Amino acid sequence: MSNTAPVNRHATAIVIGTSGLLFIGPSGTGKSAVALHCIEAARARGLFAALVGDDQVLITEAHGRLIARAPESIAGLAEVRGAGIVTVETIEAAVLTRAIRLIEPPFTERLPPEEETVEILLSFPLPLTRLPLFPGVSAFSALVAIHPEILKS
Fold first, then answer.
1. What are the tens digits of pLDDT across the range 74-126?
2. Residue ranges in the chain assigned as alpha helix (H)
3. What does the alpha-carbon distance between residue 134 and residue 71 come to, in Å, rounded to a whole number?
4. What confidence tens digit (pLDDT) does each residue in 38-60 have?
5. Nearest to 100 by CA among 33, 152, 47, 46
6. Chain mean pLDDT for the chain
7. Rounded CA gap, 140 and 129, in Å?
């Protein structure tokens, strides 16, 4: 049973294994492209991976956990900027375990703040990972270097 009304966030949510990841940030920063890349890269390694929602994610709190769902009107769809809307294998809902913010060089800080979080719903923060996007390095490889536990989930 949900304890909060759904809040629509501009984000992309995916699942890799049992890790629910919420890609956050301004429009045009590559959230959808990186999320779709991570899904395909995880599947290539034999992991379960699926889209929850792209561009808009409905987030609720239930029993102390944040749950992500896609609005019904866009469920199963993702935008590939410049190419259009595509159909993607999805799951109905996921428990979010981490927020991901994409960053590109040059980096203003060498290291992120320790135990950084982002408030997704009022009083419900998620651990935040800053995911650096380096030319020639896959986003999934960088994500796994930072969070190797994703390969075990």
1. 999 998 888 889 999 999 999 999 999 999 888 777 888 889 999 998 889 99
2. 31-44, 139-146
3. 32
4. 999 999 999 999 999 999 999 99
5. 33
6. 92
7. 13
Interstrand relation of 93-103 and 124-132 (parallel, antiparallel or unpaired):
parallel
Q: How many angstroms separate the CA atoms of 141 and 79, rounded?
A: 23
What is the 3 state secondary structure string of 4-28?
A: CCCEEEEEEEEEECCEEEEEECCCC
Q: Which tokens sit at 68?
A: 């992500």
The separation between CA 102 and the C-alpha centre of its own chain, rounded to angstroms, equals 10
**For the chain, how big is the Rg over CA atoms in Å?**
15
- Residue given tokens 């034999």 in the structure block: 46
The span from the first CA to the last CA of the chain, in angstroms, equals: 25
User: What's residue 42's pLDDT?
Assistant: 97
Q: Are 18 and 153 in contact (CB under 8 A)?
A: yes
Peptide bond into 71 cis (omega under 30): no
CA dihedral 116, 121, 124, 126 (to 10 degrees): -40
Give phi and psi for 151, each to the nearest 5.
Answer: -70, -15
Tokens found for residue 129: 């990972």
State residue 1's pLDDT score.
45
* pTM across the whole model: 0.93
